[in-house]
């Protein structure tokens, strides 16, 4: 019929590149931008179908995050603001790798039947688009529109340049029936930040020039968005560098991935910044790390990574909960034991896991790498805090807990307005509005960090000193077929090829506090090696010998 011929006609305009097989990894499809036209077109089709299926607005983001500027990628945001449901990933792979328009259309027809998707009648579909600042994004967005428009009844809204978390936030807000524009995002973040600052004990420290936060924008989208946000705040001093408008190249020697992996200062920073509080975003602003420049003699940073952001958030949340409970008189107040959980991956520094378990007695869960895995686990708690060491993470609040908290706040407001308990309730409510509950968000995370540091009266050094990271090393080994390495137990144990795991255990045993694992990257043709041990020299040796096992 009409639909089939439209699909055949438009698909013929975007043939897949020869000999390239793409897979919907942890972060969607990612490759050199020149290889992506066909994939983006087809993901446009998929997004439209997903919208028909869910009867909600779906997001489609063009970004390759922290990867080099010539790469690009495409991923889909589901109605809850999270990643595309995992049971649709095999369909994504099938669509994108179909060799001819005829095959493509037959896969689509088959899938529509299987999923019982209704394309006719009163139902409609809508896809919202966003892209990062990569030059290739402009034309790839047009290609995505072609894909969406090749499904009859699907509408498309293009929001231009956005951070990845902004688009996820907008999709989540939209499906909850809330205000969902980019402006609403800025308003919600800035008003909840102001609310938190107003609840700071002893009032807000006036932000003197030498207390300002200096932010590395990775020459990506985050810097310009942070400037907009900053203009809506009057109680935070921020200087943004590496905004991408001074001919700096996206992610080159800058950005959260560089700072966290290399532990070196990003371009644009130097001896003038020794001791200052600095932060770094990645190319699409879903990762955040803090750092300070150690000395003017070396290029090394004192890194405050995702694990420490997680620890700071966990400290704050548990502290507010205990204030709230302290005032609870079991006779007159309803009490609610919120389940708080912390989710990390095997990349979490061992010192952070020890710290979280010992000092805060929190439940710590490990998952494989990739936001979808952490997010899923965190969603099982009333307050679930998840972070990857690389700086991607957020806090999730359950609906049940939030409605209890709101009722509690109202009750406290009527009987003890302005009490410590009520302030704690208001702080937690403000956190739930400030933090992006769709996905990790460098901008909202940064505002939460800043407000907690103010609340505690902590410097970045005090925060960094919560515990001392064990020395660690990450290496990558180029391989022909990374799928040859198969892991289990949240990627901490290699089950294939046989023998490697025993060899890793034997190497690790040689070093005090040694720990090492390998896993296939989800984004590059490499095997990643991680090691930690009690000294830098030891850990470098350990990482190198484990890397040799892979070669
Ligand atoms: C992707 C993931 C990130 C993960 C990284 C690991 C999402 C949205 N992003 O960027 O969470 O840390 O991949 O990369 O899930 P790797 O597999 O190459 O080590
Ligand atoms: Zn990113």
**Quaternary form:** single chain
Number of domains: 4
Number of helices: 18
CATH class of the largest domain: Alpha Beta
Which architecture of the largest domain would the CATH scheme give at its second level? Answer: 3-Layer(aba) Sandwich
Structural class: alpha/beta
For CATH, the homologous superfamily of the largest domain is named as Alpha-D-Glucose-1,6-Bisphosphate, subunit A, domain 3
Outline type: globular
| CA-based gyration radius | 24 Å
Strand order of the largest sheet: 1-3-2-4-5
Q: Any overview of this molecule?
A:
There is one protein chain. Helices cover 41% and strands 18% of the residues. The chain has 551 residues and is an alpha/beta fold. It has four domains: 2-161, Alpha-D-Glucose-1,6-Bisphosphate, subunit A, domain 3 (Alpha-D-Glucose-1,6-Bisphosphate, Chain A, domain 3, 3-Layer(aba) Sandwich); 187-304, Alpha-D-Glucose-1,6-Bisphosphate, subunit A, domain 3 (Alpha-D-Glucose-1,6-Bisphosphate, Chain A, domain 3, 3-Layer(aba) Sandwich), CATH 3.40.120; 307-441, no CATH class; 472-550, Alpha-D-phosphohexomutase, C-terminal domain (TATA-Binding Protein), CATH 3.30.310. The chain has a five-stranded mixed β-sheet, sandwiched between helices. A five-stranded mixed β-sheet has the order 7-6-8-9-10, sandwiched between helices. Helix 1 (2-11) crosses helix 4 (101-114), helix 7 (182-198) packs antiparallel against helix 14 (420-434) and helix 17 packs antiparallel against helix 18 (536-550). The longest helix has 21 residues, at 306-326. The radius of gyration is 24 Å and the shape is globular. The structure holds 2-acetamido-2-deoxy-6-O-phosphono-alpha-D-glucopyranose and zinc ion. Residues 65-66, 282, 284, 286-287 line the site of zinc ion. Pfam families: AMG1_II, AMG1_III, PGM_PMM_I, PGM_PMM_IV. GO terms for molecular function: metal ion binding; phosphoacetylglucosamine mutase activity.
């Amino acid at each position: 019929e009409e639909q089939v011929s439209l699909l055949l006609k438009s698909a013929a305009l975007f043939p897949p590149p020869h000999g390239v097989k793409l897979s919907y990894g942890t972060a969607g499809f990612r490759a050199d931008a020149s290889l992506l036209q066909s994939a983006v077109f087809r993901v446009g089709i998929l997004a439209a179908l997903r919208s028909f299926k869910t009867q909600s607005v779906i997001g489609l983001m063009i970004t390759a995050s922290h990867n080099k500027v010539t790469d690009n990628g495409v991923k889909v945001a589901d109605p809850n603001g999270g990643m595309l449901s995992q049971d649709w990933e095999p369909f994504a792979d099938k669509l994108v790798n179909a060799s001819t328009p005829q095959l493509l259309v037959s896969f689509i027809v088959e899938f529509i039947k299987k999923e019982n998707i209704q394309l006719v009648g009163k139902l409609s579909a809508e896809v919202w688009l966003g892209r990062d600042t990569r030059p290739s994004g402009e034309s790839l967005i047009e290609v995505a529109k072609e894909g969406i428009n090749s499904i009859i009844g699907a509408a498309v809204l293009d929001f231009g340049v956005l951070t990845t978390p902004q688009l996820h936030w907008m999709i989540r807000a939209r499906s909850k029936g809330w205000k969902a524009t980019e402006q609403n995002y800025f308003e919600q973040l800035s008003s909840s930040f102001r609310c938190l600052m107003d609840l700071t004990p002893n009032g807000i420290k006036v932000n003197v020039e030498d207390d300002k936060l200096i932010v590395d924008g990775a020459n990506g989208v985050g810097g310009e968005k942070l400037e907009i946000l900053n203009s809506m705040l009057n109680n935070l001093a921020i200087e943004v560098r590496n905004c991408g408008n001074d001919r700096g190249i996206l992610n080159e020697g800058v950005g959260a991935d560089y700072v966290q992996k290399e532990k070196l200062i990003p371009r644009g920073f130097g001896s003038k910044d020794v001791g200052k509080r600095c932060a770094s975003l990645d190319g699409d602003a879903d990762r955040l790390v803090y750092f300070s420049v150690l000395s003017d003699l070396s290029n090394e940073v004192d890194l405050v990574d995702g694990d420490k952001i997680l620890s700071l958030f966990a400290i704050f949340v548990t502290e507010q909960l205990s204030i709230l409970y302290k005032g609870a008189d079991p006779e007159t107040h309803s009490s609610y034991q919120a389940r708080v959980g912390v989710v990390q991956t095997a990349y979490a520094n061992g010192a952070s896991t020890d710290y979280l378990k010992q000092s805060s007695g929190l439940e710590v869960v490990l998952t494989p790498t990739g936001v979808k895995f952490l997010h899923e686990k965190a969603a099982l708690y009333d307050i679930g805090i998840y972070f990857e060491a690389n700086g991607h993470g957020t806090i999730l609040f359950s609906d049940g807990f939030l409605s209890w908290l709101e009722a509690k706040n109202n009750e406290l407001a009527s009987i003890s307005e302005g009490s410590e308990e009520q302030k704690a309730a208001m702080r937690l409510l403000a956190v739930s509005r400030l933090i992006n509950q769709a996905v990790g968000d460098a901008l909202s995370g940064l505002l939460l960090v800043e407000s907690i540091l103010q609340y505690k009266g902590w410097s970045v050094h005090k925060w960094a000193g919560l515990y001392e990271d064990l020395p660690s090393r990450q290496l990558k080994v180029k391989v022909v077929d990374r799928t040859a390495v198969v892991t289990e137990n949240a990627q901490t144990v290699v089950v294939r090829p046989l023998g490697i795991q025993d060899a890793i255990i034997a190497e690790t045993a040689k070093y005090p506090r040694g720990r090492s694992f390998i896993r296939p990257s989800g984004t590059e043709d490499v095997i990643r090696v991680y090691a930690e041990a009690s000294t830098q020299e030891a850990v470098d040796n350990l990482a190198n010998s484990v890397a040799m096992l892979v070669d």
